[in-house]
């Protein structure tokens, strides 16, 4: 079987690549931080010495990278290396970037003789570990059809969303709901806490009721335990929020709930909690209630007015 490449072994990328390797996919991987390699080696994946080696050995390359700069660097975009790396390859962009960037990358890869598929996923670290992610796909029909079976070890379901950037816009729609849902849940727990209610009882009531979901159950447990170990980092949520808000502004769309969440996650990160789970947005709510600026200084009476 032909090798498949995977570049980017972060919080999401490492468990995704592990599921590919454990399913028997001939896999060659690269990551900027070598410490992330050991579980992949143990699962049978081969490690490339540099990104170019992944493209030399694999016809299809999954990219789970943090941002546009990281993507351009790995692909050698803007240099003569770009055409060498992408020609005759299928590049699968699984991260989250602006739709405009993705559209431009699609055009450049196609012009260089490669194929491009958007495949952002819905889900955080635990679904990634369990192979329970949901993928949204966009691109030319033949490229999407070729990539779709490769996603099976990582994703419970896949949905085709038309041409690029349809998958990213669908991901934005999903994440808009996720962000507002998690923020509302945190606010509910903050409200209950400051009224002296048993937060474990609130969790149980929510879990038994019609609003319960996989997300609410996981995040409610974290809020009860004050466990902010990362599943989806607040910094990443803030980045996603910014991208969605920019897309809304460009389309002249109102997004009042998203905009409030954007501010709250900005305050969460400014308070030094960017590496904590998104449930840590409760810290921004607590700081506001306690009259503290995002930077940690007390608010004045003028601020409260």
Largest sheet: 9 strands, mixed
Task: Give start-end ranges of low-pLDDT stretches.
Answer: 300-305
DSSP E strands, number: 9
Strand content: 5-15%
Radius of gyration (CA) equals 21 Å
Multimeric status of the protein: single chain
Write structural notes for this entry.
With 305 residues, the chain is of the alpha/beta class. 53% of the residues lie in helices and 13% in strands. It has helices spanning 13-22, 38-42, 51-57, 68-75, 81-86, 99-111, 125-130, 141-147, 166-194, 199-208, 214-225, 234-250, 256-273, 281-289, 301-304, and strands at residues 3-7, 27-30, 46-47, 58-63, 90-93, 115-118, 121-122, 133-139, 155-160. Strands 1, 2, 3, 4, 5, 6, 7, 8 and 9 form a 9-stranded mixed beta sheet that branches. Helix 1 links the parallel strand 1 (3-7) and strand 2 (27-30). Helix 9 packs across helix 11 (214-225) and helix 12 (234-250) runs antiparallel to helix 13.
């Amino acid at each position: 079987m032909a090798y498949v490449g995977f570049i980017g072994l972060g919080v999401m990328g490492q468990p995704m690549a592990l599921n590919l390797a454990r399913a028997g996919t001939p896999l060659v991987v690269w990551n900027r931080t070598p410490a992330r390699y050991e579980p992949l080696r143990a699962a049978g994946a081969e490690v490339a010495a540099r990104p170019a080696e992944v493209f030399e050995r694999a016809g299809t390359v999954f990219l789970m990278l943090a941002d546009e700069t990281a993507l351009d660097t790995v692909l050698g975009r803007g240099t003569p290396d770009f055409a060498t790396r992408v020609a005759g390859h299928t590049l699968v962009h699984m991260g989250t970037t602006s739709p405009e960037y993705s559209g431009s990358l699609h055009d450049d890869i196609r012009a260089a003789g490669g194929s491009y598929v958007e495949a952002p996923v819905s889900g955080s670290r635990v679904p990634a570990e369990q192979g329970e992610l949901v993928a949204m796909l966009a691109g030319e029909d033949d490229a999407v059809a070729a990539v779709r079976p490769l996603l099976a070890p990582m994703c419970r379901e896949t949905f085709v969303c038309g041409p690029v950037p349809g998958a990213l816009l669908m991901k934005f729609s999903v994440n808009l709901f996720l962000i507002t849902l998690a923020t509302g849940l945190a606010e509910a727990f903050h409200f209950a806490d400051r009224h002296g209610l048993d937060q474990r009882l609130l969790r149980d009531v929510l879990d038994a009721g019609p609003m319960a979901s996989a997300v609410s159950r996981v995040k409610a447990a974290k809020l009860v335990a004050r466990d902010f170990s990362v599943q989806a980092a607040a910094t990443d949520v803030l980045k996603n929020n910014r991208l969605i808000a920019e897309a809304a502004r460009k389309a002249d769309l109102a997004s009042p709930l998203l905009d409030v969440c954007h501010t709250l996650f900005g305050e969460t990160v400014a308070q030094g909690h960017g590496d904590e789970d998104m449930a840590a947005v409760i810290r921004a709510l607590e700081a506001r209630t306690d009259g503290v600026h995002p930077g940690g200084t007390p608010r004045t009476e003028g601020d409260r007015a």
